[in-house]
Amino acid sequence: MDENEEEFLIKLISIFKVEAIEHISAITSGLIELEKADAKMQMEHIETIYREAHSLKGAARSVNLKEIESICQAMESVFAALKRKEIITSPQLFDMLHQAVNFIGKLISKDDEITALEKSQIIENIRHFEDILKNAAVTPHQSSVREKPEEETKPEIPEIRHSAIHEGTVRIPTVKLDSLLLQAEELLSLKLAASQHATELRKINAVFALWKQELAKVHAEIQKGQGSLETKDVRFNHILEILDPNNASIKSLESKLTALAKSAEIDHKSLGGMVDNLLDDMKTVLMLPFSSLLGVFPKLVRDLSRDQGKDVDLVIQGEEIEIDRRILEEMKDPLIHLVRNCIDHGIEKPEVRNLKKKSPRGTVKLAITAKDSNKIEILVSDDGAGCDASELKSVAVKRGIISQKEVSKLNEKEVLSLVFVSGVSTSPIITDVSGRGLGLAIVHEKVEKLNGMVSFETKIDTGSTFRIVVPLTLATFRGLLVHVNEQMFAIPVINVERVVRVKTEEIRTVEGRDTISLDGQVVSMIRLGNVLEPGEGEKNKTDENIQVVVLRSGEKRMAFVVDEVVHEQEILVKSLGRQLSRVRNIMGATILGNGRIAPILNVNDLMRSAVKVTYAPAQAPEEVLKDKPKRRSILEVDDSITARTLLKNILESAGYDVKTAVDGVDAFSTLQTQEFDLIVSDLDMPRMNGFDLTSKIRNDRKLSELPVVLVTGLESREDKERGIEVGANAYIVKSSFDHSNLLEVIQRLI
Fold this sequence. Notes:
Layout: H1 3-36, H2 39-62, H3 66-83, H4 91-109, H5 116-134, H6 140-146, H7 150-153, H8 174-224, H9 226-232, H10 235-285, E1 287-289, H11 291-294, H12 297-307, E2 312-317, E3 322-324, H13 325-346, H14 350-355, E4 362-371, E5 375-382, H15 389-398, H16 404-407, H17 412-416, H18 439-449, E6 453-459, E7 463-471, E8 476-484, E9 487-492, E10 496-503, E11 508-510, E12 513-518, E13 521-527, H19 528-532, E14 545-553, E15 556-562, E16 564-572, E17 586-591, E18 597-601, H20 603-615, H21 621-625, E19 633-637, H22 641-653, E20 657-661, H23 664-673, E21 678-681, H24 690-698, E22 708-712, H25 717-726, E23 730-733, H26 739-749
Parallel strand pairs: 2-4, 13-15, 19-20, 19-21, 21-22, 22-23
Antiparallel strand pairs: 1-3, 4-5, 5-7, 6-7, 8-9, 8-16, 10-14, 11-12, 12-13, 14-15, 17-18
Helix pairs in contact: 1-2, 1-4, 2-3, 3-4, 3-5, 4-5, 8-10, 12-13, 13-18, 23-24
């Protein structure tokens, strides 16, 4: 193959990948729908999937990808048999089909993680497909059909040409669109500058007109007294000689200035209109519907619910609503975390739901709605068990996140917001799905970075709802400009609840902090200058009326005193650069029309900083250093000398004292004579396995609180459930095992 042919093949494969991804998505969606469809709709879904598999097979053949072609051929044969009703659908058949589609996806992405085991599994599945077809029951009608020539028995495949480029659309690399959008956004600065220039010219024109009026008065007075002045002082004649020609120059200058001001105003309006239209169109180009993100969720719900022995329906509403692609990409992980949380923590198993007189099949709902003109609200809810607020309190206190005294002062909303704190989890055991208390903390962090808000609502045995509000676009938004200590700052309007004037006599001191009353609720108040620059911001202290901006972030609400509220305008967010990738209280900067730079405040940071300024206790250095942490001890239990040695080295390298045992009997005997902070145990061992060892530890009064981590190759749902039943604190599957994962779990437990 010469160089040109090789380049052409590479280009052809890249085109194939784009087309193949669309086919895979359609096949996956079709399988999900087929599994749920009634008898009337099944044939329609079978036909759709059949055509997609056939098209993918043809595309793979054209680029000589034999493995993909053979898998598609096997799938096509299965769906042809389903069309002829020679076989019937079953959960096992769907599992194999999904596995085959997943493998095709890996082959297309050339995933290095494809294992020999996976390849052999797919080959086995293909053979199984063939066996299914060979053993299919044949009706008399089908038998007569089979006696016809081969070309007549082949299912009809309409000549539908699948193209990666649909009519009325064109594929453009997103990197090019990002560049165009960036340039369009930069024009916003020019628009603001043009507006500023037009304003300045209007002001100059007004000053010039006033000066002209004053000059005319002087000229008139001189004209009145001209006769008498000539006899007294000839210098006035000289003044008139200067004023008369200058008057003509002033009129000419006034005319030019007026024309320039009008021209600047016209240019400003014209440029402003063009920039707004261009920016709106570019934003529209980079807007994507939520459906482009949510296509993977039906399969995610199917796989996770089947793995946990639950029946769950996913209901999606508002998937046609469009949002900035950059926000959509950032929201993928949070939404996955929330959906997994609903299934794992919320939805009960069918037998439990039956006892509660619920439908055995649970529902997870994902609803997207447009809120105002520049916000999107996302609701992720389930009809499961709900969350017990008292259990949240208990976990938070137990993990040392909050004291018993502090937690007793929290209202219901504040207690529920603890679910977003890292380390808080109500799961009885740490597994690959849940228990670390990280998922919802990641959700909160991601939403904060997008300058959005997230909250949590729940009701026992009714269900839970996560409410997320994010901006429609990422780069520009409405901002409120405020003056603090002679510096201009911008605050995202999405976080501004209201702007009010407060009289000094309305300020009350509660527990050593200033507060004001809004809508019958007490709201903490602090000077913004004190948060940004401690010791400053005293300008308004003696004023009778104080300007206050009330900000909200999630369930938190706080009032900040500013020197002046200037106005609201559209803000273009500029990053602070790699050197200042993370600055406390600041999320970026914007360039104002006059060329000055205004920092954009990070409201979430601001509230945390305000709490520290208000409550930070003075702590002596000796109090911080008085308790040096002691070295923790771990008992490692495994019958394999290789596994024991490897794990022992990992734990000792992490700073733990490690002692080993060869099985459960040896381990329990060791526990009678020595104290340990934690046990890491294998499951499958002679004499006493990990389940029995854990159960024996939990039944021992002295050892019952000792954390136990099970590290095993057994990854079935039944094994994980048994791990929960016997009282293990964590269940780590060796197939997904990595050092950092284990060390993180141990650190959380001790």
